[in-house]
Amino acid sequence: MAEESPLFSNDAVVLGILFIILAVVFRTSSSQNPFWQKFYTYVPSVLLCYFIPAVLNSFNIISGEESSLYFVSSRYLLPASLVLFTIGIDIKAISQLGFKAVIMFFAGTIGIIIGGPIAIMIVSTFSPETVGGAGPDAVWRGLTTIAGSWIGGGANQTAMLEVFGASTDLFSAVLAVDIIVANLWLAVLLYGSGRSEKIDEFFKADSSAIKSVKKQVEEYVAGIARIPKTQDTMTILAIAFGITGFAHFASDLIAPFLEANYPGLNKFSLTSGFFWIVVIATTAGLILSFTKVRKLEGVGSSRFATVFLYVLIASIGMQMDITTVVSNPGLFMVGGIWIMIHIIVLLLVAKLIKAPFFFVAVGSQANVGGAASAPVVASAFSPSLAPVGVLLAVLGYFVGTYGAWLCGILMQLVAVS
User: Fold this and answer.
1) What's the CA gap between 184 and 327, in Å, rounded?
2) Residue 169 — pLDDT band, cuts 50, 70, 90?
3) What is 14-53 written as a DSSP string?
4) How far is the C-alpha of 180 from the C-alpha of 341, rounded, in Å?
5) What is the pTM (predicted TM-score) of this model?
6) Distance, CA of 187 to CA of 226 (rounded, Å)
């Protein structure tokens, strides 16, 4: 029987709903009303921008599956926002953050690599049928695609599907686990971003470098700020979408060429068109940050980037159906244990090196969420920090296939047949 159509299926209507949600959240979060001030003390505004569309999707009011808004926002608005965020970047200031961000990224990677086989071992003790199966339907084969997605991205996930040969039906089942568990963890990180100072105090973490970078960026913006004119706005949009267009043009040439002539490079995600879009947009923005274009920050380039990014946040929320968790509880249990091991490793390493929660959140999301959501989490702390998420996410593309392959081998060793 065909699924019931959502109440609103026209993307123009859905986009309007998303913008209304974003506007209401932003207006109430900046309200002087005591109720809203108290409310947003406990609930970060960015979490609502993500969660409300998820609720609407879960109750079939709108549909992330039928809508093309996520594709549009991730392929067009995301690279445009990356350009606008990075043209104002202060490379010298970012370098002051040190290597803790990279350490936390690899801690997250290790947590995912060991988390898969440990989750299988735990679940097999009381529900062996959940992690059993043979041939293409062996559950461990499907779970390797989650490892590829959580360490790298969609291209790495596809690589694992090809390498380990999971069946189509199994892949569909684990894909739901991938999306729901990853998005629930994203919601936790967004919530934590609003309480990062208290978390840092608990872990006795030194966040002075992060605060210093934020201060430097704020002082720079204050020094060049002026009232924007129409030509300024047009210039900002021309740079953002002009480079986005170039990134798509170059990606359409580079990715097919590499896939046809150097197929072995797919292990590095170098045959993925989305990878090249992200890399080219980010690189172009970084190059322009050394020119006078950087002064566009004074007329609000990062505000446009923030708007684009929040549309992406809302469209990501549309992908989550919270009601599907009960449809296959066994596999979701595996995914839940897996992400918990990832979290435990992150927190232990963070405690050991006294890393602030920002590095925990961005290091994790650069693995689990990739380029589509790592800058979202980073910008939840401060828009000036969004490029940190992008740079780490690109690193995830490179290590994703190798890490996922190792995870797959370990899961095969402990799997129940």
Assistant:
1) 16
2) confident
3) HHHHHHHHHHHHHHHHT---HHHHHHHHHS-HHHHHHHHH
4) 17
5) 0.69
6) 35
